[in-house]
UniProtKB/TrEMBL annotation:
This is Cation:proton antiporter. The lineage of its organism: Bacteria, Pseudomonadati, Pseudomonadota, Alphaproteobacteria, Hyphomicrobiales. It is a multi-pass membrane protein. NCBIfam families: PRK12599.1-4 (NF009245). One of its GO terms (molecular function) is sodium:proton antiporter activity. Keywords: Cell membrane, Membrane, Transmembrane, Transmembrane helix, Transport. GO terms for cellular component: plasma membrane.
Amino acid sequence: MIAASVVSAGAMVALGILSMAFLLTVYRVVAGPTLPDRVLALDMLVAIVIGFIAVIAIKTGFTLYIDIAISLGLVGFLATVAFARFILTQGQSNAAERIGAVQSADLAAEGRKIRRRKRKKGGR
């Protein structure tokens, strides 16, 4: 009887801690300054939800919840990989745009130099 009350109390404490972590992570998703911060927070939300499912499985004794948590972990991992690939491709396209802008600025500067040389030669 005392073991059941200890497990029940531990589950309540765990649910409280997970609830606090969930709220803090939701804040990070909303207020995250960059996209990678938000993706990391979403990955953390998946981990917290897996924790909720595991605690509820222990509290109720229904072991099917563990299978659900494992499935959610796999889906969360795949979603994180997909977001990471998106961020990488977005970063590469932004880098290409910056390189193109620098190259066009260099070409414009080179064109100005050539026009100055032509003016000096024509003015002599």
